[in-house]
Amino acid sequence: MKILVIEDEEALRESIFSYLTGEGNLCEVAMDYWSGIEKINLYSYDCILLDLTLPGGDGLKILAEIKKMNKQEGVLIISARHSLDDKLSGLEMGADDYLVKPFHLSELKARIMAIVRRKNFSGSNLLSFNEINIDMLAMEVRIGDKLINFTKKEYDLLIYFISNQGKVISKNAIAEHLWGDEIDMSDDFDFIYTHIKNLRKKLVEAGAKDYIRSMYGVGYKLENI
């Protein structure tokens, strides 16, 4: 998953970043209102962790901007504000969940997973696309009873394709989703072709059909054939 943490408290921000990154997620951070606004305008995420009390502005204004832009990211508010009014305000404005500080990082992860499942996979930990079966908790992909050994990037790429099945995805969107804003430093996306080639090869060799189509000059699309 690709997650943005908008949090000004350095120790908590670094703790969340280290934990989520250690769990295999791509994690980016913003430490104030304006850097948070810049991130959501430039990039897309699976989930945004949003503090409300930020230098430079209120986190609820960032939430309003996300909704105004009609972005589809899940939003989990993480805040020391614990009154019912604060919780209701955040949820009524469109946040998917509200977690009061302090919290356990394991609970934070569970809440993020629940949001992403509801947004993309109808709330289930098990994802299926024809003969391809994925256990998202175990991060295992099977064709029938055969377990496929994917790298982390190949696994993330497969999830991304299935989440956007039927849509044409540009090379730039794939690169930004899998590598984050660091990809801005690259002007060569040939490595994406290598990852997609390996993903397709492993799926076909395990008995799946080749669902990934190259759209010349545009990008790639996963389609049901």
From TrEMBL:
Modified residues (4-aspartylphosphate): D51
Keywords: DNA-binding, Phosphoprotein, Transcription, Transcription regulation, Two-component regulatory system
Alphabetized InterPro entries for the sequence: CheY-like_superfamily, OmpR/PhoB-type_DNA-bd, Sig_transdc_resp-reg_C-effctor, Sig_transdc_resp-reg_receiver, WalR-like, WH-like_DNA-bd_sf
Annotated PROSITE patterns: OMPR_PHOB, RESPONSE_REGULATORY
DNA-binding region(s) in UniProt: 124-224
Start and end residues of each OmpR/PhoB-type domain: 124-224
One Pfam family of this chain: Trans_reg_C
GO CC terms: cytosol; protein-DNA complex
GO molecular function annotation: phosphorelay response regulator activity; transcription cis-regulatory region binding
Response regulatory domain segment(s): 2-116
SUPFAM superfamilies given in the database record: C-terminal effector domain of the bipartite response regulators, CheY-like
GO biological process, one term: regulation of DNA-templated transcription
Protein name per its UniProtKB record: DNA-binding response regulator
Species classification: Bacteria, Pseudomonadati, Bacteroidota, Sphingobacteriia, Sphingobacteriales
